[in-house]
Amino acid sequence: MALRLIADFDLEKDVLPWLRVQQAASAAAGARGGGPGVLENNYECLRVLNVEQNRNIIYTYKDNKGNVFFGLYDYQTKQNEHLYTFEKDLQVVSCSVNREKTLLATSLVQAAKEGRSNELQPGSKCLTLLVEIHPINNVKVLKAVDSYIWVQFLYPHVESRPQRENHLLLLSEEKYIEQFHIQVVQEDGNRVVIKNSGHLPRERIAEDFVWAQWDMSEQRLYYIDLKKSRSVLKCIQFYADEHFNLMFEAPLDISLSDSGFKLVNFGYSHLQDQEELSEHLTLCVFTNHTGSLCVCYCPNFDSWEQITYSVFYFHKGHSKTFTTTLGSVDSRVTKGITFLNLDYYVAVYLPGHFFHLLNIQHPDLICHSLFLTENSEVIDMLPHSPLQSLSGSLVLDSCSGKLYRAFLNQSYLLEFLWNSRLDCERMALLHCVLSCGQDPRRLEAKIIQWISENISACHSFDLIQEFIIASSYWSIYPETSNMDKLLPYSSLLTWDTEIPGITLVTEEIPLPLMKVHSFKGYWEKLNSNLEYVKYSKPHLHYNNSVVRREWHNLISEEKTGKRRSTVYVRNILDNAIKVISNLEAKNLEPRLTPLFQEEDNHQQLLIGLMVSELRDHLLRHLQGVEKKKIEQMVLDYVSKLLDLICQILEASWRKHNLHPWALHFNRQASAAEFAVFHIMTRILEATNTLFLPLPPGFHTLHVILGVRCLPLHNLLHYIDHGVLLLTEAAVTRLMKDLDNTEKNEKLKFSIIMRLPPLTGQKICRLWDHPVSSNIISRNHVKRLLQNYNKQPWSSVMDKSSFSVEFLPLNYFIHILTDIESSNPALYAFEGHDNVDAKFVEEAALKHTAMLLGL
């Protein structure tokens, strides 16, 4: 299925066998209370109560007498231990244990049984206890009130030494939150007791809240209070040095009633299990290491005909409200909507109806999120039991007592990509798969195989473009924060096509107001994201517009023979050499395709310019990252762009089993060469639009295949429209390899006439043919006359060994001879083995006579 759930803990497998062993040992020894009691197959009483910050799991069960037992599963050692037994038939509301496992806090209520007298203190509905359990000793009553209480120990991140003071959160159904400070001392060796248990310091940290969520991993408390009927989300961060800070306040445009009350991740009691989830709102806060802050909200369901849910992307400054219509309403609709935190994504699903995978790093375009309706087989493969998303990727199924680590199933998503038919699904799946980051080389090979099979299937975007940009982005993204703001994530800037089955409304939202001024870790990244939303418009994503302009300037200067500082150009070409060296160092396998075997000056200039501009872009906006690291990141990024193009070409070459003789002109082109030529043309189209560099040698190979595959008129059409770019290496090979048949002469002449002047002059000297000689002679005479200053007749009418009877032509010959003799080094005729110099002189004179009409 799309979600991959790996069980880290299972009550049935990790606890029940241990309990049975304890039961057998207890029965054999005739113990009456020193260990777990007899379950007598009453296994449904066994359930998870809480998951602590260190992933230790607290569970409870009852014996045949109704006594309540507390046990703990140590996540590190994979061992169980008995914590405490409460010898009364009560129901556990909440439970927590401190990090050292010396104190246990719990709240209990009267078990719902007819005829049972109240075993709690008179007038109280809920009893909250603090128990010394190392060893089992005193029991301290914290609260005996007529409202439900939930408890949670704080876990400082410093684990090198025992804590002398413990801190306990206490949340009341009466909508207040208190923190107790509990000092402990050691007596009689390892015995731990509460100091001054008669008077425990406490402070009230929140009041009048209607919703609260505990982040056990990051030790954060999120809660919502109502100010003038307006919902305000607040967050308190608890620290190891015993203090806490209110980090931010953020207004939420949601409807909450002050008569309601809901807790998230404060244990998993029967009270929540007994509620009909569809009658209550679902709201949770998700964060990740990149500084994202999302609030997922689904209001009360008015009907089962359609469902509306919202996601507030505070780190992006906007919210999206989604509405989906349920195709059918049946008996399976018994549970509420589920939100799961999957790092870069949030999964929203209703079992049997829909599955929505929301991209929280790049939520702007809906096509980057995957939406599937009940018609997809993926829906039926999702878990039907309600899952509770804990910190990070941890997920608890409280019904089965299993704790999972949740991931996107890369293999399944890749298979689904092959079978998808909608462009929006293909786009979303491509990004989902790449974000998984598992074995990228193998993954890229599979995606390239899919692209080659579906090269023309997408109409809304270019597959090759999207793959190159997205894969390059994910290759460099983990290197440092803020890369999502500086590098392009997608080739698309807009998406106007509707997604079947869902509608959305996007709105700007007020940003959280940060209440502190010094940030570290996650808070520094969140603050950076908020600052970016405030001040960075337009967006800072890199693009090649400056590179395009500068590259065209350099090429124009080359054509006119004017070139700026050689040091500047040399530095640009040095950048290209570094990229190619970096690429070759990472790719040790021999290449099938003849790339990187020639000096392609134009592409090397483009590569070098991109390195220079991207480096400057990152240096401007990446504060606090050393220059050397940025330079290496740039080399890796540009190398990745080129490597992906090479991989696409290599895969096509390998798929069609091309051999070296494909590069010779004297063979008929095969269907395989047509296919490779088509792929290369699509690559060129994709890179030209984004102005991305190509591997040196690409254009030469493309021209050679074009000459072999296309009729002459099509070939010239491709050349004239810039699809085929004539390189000196390709034309040189063509002039040498093809003989002078009438067909080949026409091809050669057509290509020579399309070459830049300087390149054309070089190529003409390689072709032993009157046409090339004629061209050479014209160029030579033109060059002689470019700077000619007219001299008196007498100065040029000395005796000559070469004269004709026609005086104007004789005069012209004398002019040419005089120019050549005046500066032999500058105007010497550049001959070649394939050119008859005498013929060139005669051709030049003949051409002059033709121009004069003689």
UniProtKB/TrEMBL annotation:
Any single GO CC term annotated in Swiss-Prot or TrEMBL for this entry: trans-Golgi network
CDD domains in the cross-refs: GSAP (cd23105)
One of the protein's GO biological processes: positive regulation of amyloid-beta formation
Domain Gamma-secretase-activating protein C-terminal: from-to ranges: 642-749
Pfam families: GSAP-16 (PF14959)
Protein name: Gamma-secretase-activating protein C-terminal domain-containing protein
